[in-house]
Specification:
Helices cover 40% and strands 16% of the residues. The strands form three sheets. Strands 5-4-1-6-7-12-11-8-9-10 form a ten-stranded mixed sheet. Strands 2-3 form a two-stranded antiparallel ribbon.
Amino acid sequence: MSDMKLTEVPEKEEEEEEKDWAAAKAFFDNLKTKKPRPPKPRNAVTIAVSSRTLFNLVEERKIFTEQGVEKYVAHQVEHENEPLKPGPAFPFVKALMKVNDRLRQLYPEEEELFDIVLMTNNHAQVGVRLINSINHYDLTIERFCMTGGESPIGYLKAYLTNLYLSKDAEKVTEAIEEGIAAATMFMPEKMQSQLSDTQLRVAFDGDAVLFSDESEIIVKQQGLDQFFEHEKTFENLPLAQGPLKCFLEALGKLQRKFYAKDERLECPIRTFLVTARSAASSGARVLKTLRSWGLEIDEALFLAGAPKGPLLQKIKPHIYFDDQMFHIEGAQELGTISAHVPYGIGQKYHKGKKIEQPPKKE
């Protein structure tokens, strides 16, 4: 999996980058705008969101699939002055902006901030409606990548992406295979009311999300008894990292900036571990793994196989990450915005039963 940022920059190239950034900073500071200057990409926690996660494009998508790209583009141009409705990533993005506001209050020259990038395979002609919608909702999104029908995945590393959110499961899988934290977002039919507007709340499953699927493989292939025995035997051996570990690491780095200002109790970032593991039988290894990584989790909920939906309904996260679709579906039913991480052995199972694959044609 990827580290916080994905490439080392040669010293000479870094010097040139500093000069370019200084010029860009001076230009932006001279603009008559109340919008804050975007952070330097190399220092930022970069969140790449697709247009279909940021906005609700269900109707527009229907035009695209039924009538083709030309009709789709024409529709978007015709309606470019009508703001798009919010999509599943919208509350998450707003919460990221709130964290940035708090960081800038404490550290006026701070560069380690969230930087939201719109990453879309839309055509540039559609960009005007996207820009108008972003400005309508006063979102701080300055960096775009519009690829005109081509996959944007190849640009994720160039944009130094820490997390990629999309509605396209194939693109998400491709991103994870490239070592980038990624998830497929789902919008519940009825959203939970009163998501926090002062605190970013992020909930994670454990196995195959923060951690690798090594323990889950044992559950699926050998059963719970062997799993409990395995976890007890290897309690002091940290689990390998999973696809979202690097994002939790990025959140923790920003949290520590608030702790350094004695703002732990008022920290605008709160993280949750929501796992089907049992605490007494298999919880210690999880907590010791996080400790070995130097990471904290604010709340750890061990459900021992109980449904996650009711707990998530109480937590009210802006986003919940899980590798198994039946947990995603249960969360959705109770109004939680969820993001599926297509990683590990869990993709071959549904509700504990192996998904039968159709026979291969000769």
